[in-house]
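As a warm-up, study this chain.
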Amino acid sequence: MNYKNSIWAKRILQLQHDDGSWGYFHTLSNPSPKQPMTTEQALRRLEILGFTYDDKPIRTAVDYLHHCLTGKIQLPDREEKIHNWKIFTDLMLAAWIRRFISNDKTANDIAEKWSEIINAAFKNKVYNNDLYVTTYRNLFGIKPRGDRLVDFVSFYQVSLLTNELNKDLEEAYFDYILEHETGIYYIYNKRLTIFPEKFRSKETGYYIRAIELLAKYDNPELKKKLMFAADWLQENKTEEGKWDLGIKSKDGINFPLSDSWRNENDRIDDCTYRIHSIVNKIIK
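Now compare it with the structure written out below.
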């Protein structure tokens, strides 16, 4: 399926600035018709619609992120005082760059730092917060401050560290994420080992987004740990062998992919395409 020519993609691409951004990166305080989304929101939606680094809009956006990361361009976002802002913005930028390319040295250097922190925190194959804080302070010069740095189970760290950690520690790290009571911040806010109450729901759309993020890890032992989710998805196929999350799953992020869901077959095709690709990442 090709959703790159959908009305959703066209609308987003029409709003891209000449510098490759969509204006603010992380926080949009005053949405408007000319500025309805952040750069991060645009990239998330385009990625779901199938865009990759092979597409010029993504290459332009990644170049912009790289220039922000290296200090050539300053992010327009207002500095958030509750975080170690420089550390947090570097984390966000590096995570998004590495979602599209793997050879950006500056982004990879940041990934290596975070890998060192998490490897240290799990060196005994259970999470040790003291080791996390100590290693963080040794590398960054200060203690972690702000929820998304004190608690590392968020989209940015989980994405950034894909296939980056020591293989003998990845299982403990994965177990910690799967049992984390508040899920993966920015994606899904409940424990991942507990399924959404209703399959046909917006919540399931967020849930599969979290599973999709974890399914990018290549370690076969980690794939096994996600089989419970793949089995649950298989159990929720329709009688026709497809998937349907229902009209309420339309959130403008995960769905829809097609131009319209007036025809329920388009909705079913969208859901089936998305979930089938996630299941395949787990079982293959």
